[in-house]
Amino acid sequence: MRDAGDIEARHQLMFASTLAGLAFGSAGVHIPHAMSYSVATLKHAFTARGYEDRDAMVPHGIAVVINAPAAFRFTGSVNPQRHLDAAAALGADVAGAQPEDAGEILATTFIALMRETGLPSGIAELGYAEADVPALAEGAFAQQRPLVMAPRSVSLEDLQGLYRAAMRYW
């Protein structure tokens, strides 16, 4: 029989999981998240730092983050101020920034953080190449739940371009 403390801990974890789901649902996770599913599942050739004792795989967080700069460039024109606010929150100097530069400023700021934290330089470093782009895009396009939340429509062709843009950032 489980003790009351164990049951309480399980209830707290379930509640935390529910809150996380609600937060993600209202936060507007979209293109990078949809792209992450293909990146995490189509190849298992990458071993992340801290995962050396496990089979090769791309952790979900890395699979999302690695696609974000390409997505920011793609969505920057739709709501430039939101992109500039995000870039400023990440430490970018956005004084005098032009709206048409918002996606690039956020992407560049995010890439700098990726470099500083030792993340891969793009999906090529995870084992992907141009030949993988159609399969990656097909897998992401199947993820309509997050894609319809994107601030602009995303076609299969757009996803192919986004994966090409995410191949290597530096």
Helices and strands: which structural class? mainly alpha
CATH superfamily: Dehydroquinate synthase-like - alpha domain
Shape: globular
Which fold name fills CATH's third level, the topology?
Answer: Dehydroquinate synthase-like, alpha domain
Number of domains: 1
What's the overall average pLDDT, rounded? 91
Q: Report the helical percentage.
A: 55-70%
- Count every helix, treating DSSP H or I runs of 4 or more residues as helices: 9
C-alpha termini separation: 55 Å
- Calculate Rg over CA atoms: 18 Å
Q: Just give the CATH class.
A: Mainly Alpha
Strand content: under 5%
Q: Which CATH architecture?
A: Up-down Bundle
Assembly of the depicted chains: single chain
Q: What is the strand tally?
A: 0
H/E topology pattern: HHHHHHHHH
Low-confidence stretches: none
Structure description:
With 170 residues, the protein is mainly alpha-helical. The chain has helices spanning 4-27, 31-41, 60-65, 68-75, 80-89, 102-116, 133-141, 144-147, 156-165. Helix content is 57%, strand content 0%. α2 crosses α7 and α4 (68-75) packs antiparallel against α6 (102-116). It contains nine helices and no strands. It has one domain (30-165): Dehydroquinate synthase-like - alpha domain (Dehydroquinate synthase-like, alpha domain), CATH 1.20.1090.
